[in-house]
Amino acid sequence: MFVHNLRLGVASLRRNPLLTTLMIMSIGVGVAASMVTYAVFRAVSGDPIPEKSAQLFAPQIDNRGPQYNHHGEPPDALNYTDAMALMRAHKAPRQTLLFQVGLSVMPDDPHKMPFKALGYATYGDFFTMFDVPFQYGSGWGAEEDDARDAVVVISRSLNKKLFGGENSVGRRINLDDRQYRIVGVTENWDPKPRFFDMFSGNAYAMPSQVYIPFTHAVAQKIDSYGNNNCGMDGKRGEDWDSWLRGECVWISPWVELDTPEQVQAYRQFLDGYAQEQRRAGRFNWAPNNRLRDVPAWLDSEHAVPPESRISLSLALGFLVICLVNTIGLLLAKFMRRAPEIGVRRALGASRADIYRQFLAEAGMVGLAGGLLGLVLTALGMLGIGLVFEPQIAKLAHLDFALVLLTLLLAVTATVLAAFYPTWRAAQVQPAWQLKSN
After folding, report:
1. How many C-alpha atoms does 354 have within 13 Å on its Cβ side?
2. Facing residues of 120 across strands?
3. What is the rounded CA–CA span in Å between residue 293 and residue 50?
4. Most buried residue, 311, 357, 370, 396, by most Cβ within 10 Å?
5. HSE-up of 391 (CA within 13 Å, CB side)?
6. What is the pLDDT of residue 23?
7. Distance CA 244, CA 219 (A)
8. How far apart are CA 432 and CA 437, in angstroms?
9. Could you give the 3-state DSSP secondary structure of residue 409?
10. Taking the alpha carbons of 368, 370, 375, 379 in that order, is the dihedral positive or negative?
11. Domain map of the chain by residue range?
C-alpha cells in the first residue's frame, strides 16, 4: 500500500510540475538557510571538553572594587599576586595558571627564516587537566615547574615543520634565542571555543604551537602576548617587578574539582582569601569572587557570538514563512482534487487512506526539497565568511550529521505542514462531489 501511495503521489506531482517546483524550491531554500546558520551556531556553542566540563573551574577574585566592576562582575583574569597565592595554597587536586606567549622560532637550517610561534606559559597540570593528547612524549612535571626548567611541548604541526614529523622528544629548539628541551609533541588539539583563554580573545584563534613552564617564563621576564588589563588607572608599572606587584590582570587560572564538596570548599577558600586581603588593607570591599565551571564560564564570557543567534533566529523565521507558503500550495493542490477524493471515498476508501496517500506525496516533496536544500547548504558554506568573522566561518562544515539533519528537517517539516491541507481533503463529502459532477 505504501508503494501504491507513492505511485499515486508521483503521478499527482507530475500533473502540475510548476506547482511542484514551487513547493520544492520553497522547502529547499528555507531548509538551506536554517542549516547554514545552524552549522555556525553548532560550531560556536558546543561543549569544548564535554567529558570534564563540570569538573573544571575558573576562579575570579575582585581586586579592584565595585567602582571599577562591570555589572558587579570581578575581572576575567588575575594579577600575579593573587594567582600565585592560589597556586601556593594548592586547595585543588589539580591547578594551573596560564598566559599567552609569542616566541620567535629560530630553525636550525640557516637558510630558513625565523617565525613567530604562539602558545602558553603554564604549569604541568595543564596537560592532565585538559586531556591534551600527545603524539610523542608527554607534558612536564612538578619538578620542572619548581626548577623553572627550559622545557617545551610543541604541536604536531610545528614538529612537522621543524623535524619532518619525526619523534623530536629530547631534541633542542631555539625560542627567542634560548635553548629549550622538547619533552612532548601534542596531537592536533584545538578545542573550540578555547575555553581556557577567553580573556585574551582567543576563543577561535589558530591552534597553539608551544607550551613552556609558567615559572620559567616569569623568571626569564617573558612578556604576555595576550591581554593585559590594568583597570581604570591604566598603570602597568615602570619595570617587570612593579608589574608583577601591581593590580593589572593578565593570568588565567583554572582548577579541577571532582566533587561538590571540593567545589564548596574552594569557594570558601576564595572568600577567606579575600577577607584576609581586606584585613591586610589591600581590599576595602566585601569579597566578590566567582567560581564557574566551563559551561557557566563560556556563558559569562559570551562565547557564542550574538550574530550567530540572530542569524539562526531569522533563518528559522524564514523557514516558517516557507512552510506557510507550502501549506497554501498544498491546500490549493489537494482541494483541486476534491472530485477524485469523492470518487475514492465512494468506492470504499477511508479517511485514513486519504491521509496516507497525501502525506506520502508531501513526504516526497519534502525529500526533494531536502536534496535541493543540501545543494544550497553546500553553496551557502562558501559564503559564510561574508557574514561571520573568518575564524568563526571556517568552523562550519557540512558533515554526515548535518546531511541527515537537513533531510530529516525537510521531510518532517513538509509532512507536518501537509497535515492541515490533508485534513481538509479528508473532509470532502463523497455525496456532494458525485452529485455536482
Report:
1. 29
2. 100, 211
3. 11
4. 370
5. 12
6. 84
7. 11
8. 8
9. helix
10. positive
11. 2-46+306-436, 62-288
Please list, in sequence order, all residues whose beta carbon lies within 8 angstroms of the beta carbon of residue 108, skipping any fewer than 6 positions away: 162, 174
Q: What is the pLDDT of residue 18?
A: 80
8 Å CB contact between 217 and 101: yes
Per-residue pLDDT at 161 = 93
Residue 419's pLDDT band (cuts 50, 70, 90): confident
Q: How confident is the model at residue 123 (pLDDT cuts 50, 70, 90)?
A: very high
Percent of the chain with pLDDT over 70: 89
Q: Give the model's confidence band at 235: pLDDT under 50 very low, under 70 low, under 90 confident, else very high.
A: low
When the pLDDT of each residue in the chain is averaged and rounded to a whole number, the result is: 86
Work out whether the CA dihedral 238, 239, 243, 245 comes out positive or negative: negative
What's the grid cell of residue 131? 586531556
Given this model, what pLDDT does residue 72 score?
86
Q: Is 425 exposed, middle or buried (0-12, 13-18, 19+ CB in 10 A)?
A: buried
- Per DSSP, the three-state class of 235 is coil
What is residue 251's DSSP assignment?
B
DSSP state of 388: S
323-352 mean pLDDT: 73
Tell me the one-letter amino acid at 394.
Answer: K
Which of helix, strand or coil describes residue 46? coil
Cα distance from N-terminal residue to C-terminal residue, the chain: 28
Contact present, 164 and 134 (Cβ < 8 Å): no
Say if residue 1's pLDDT is above 60: no
Output the CA–CA distances (angstroms, integers) from residue 427 to 58, 413, 416, 420, in the order listed. 62, 22, 18, 11
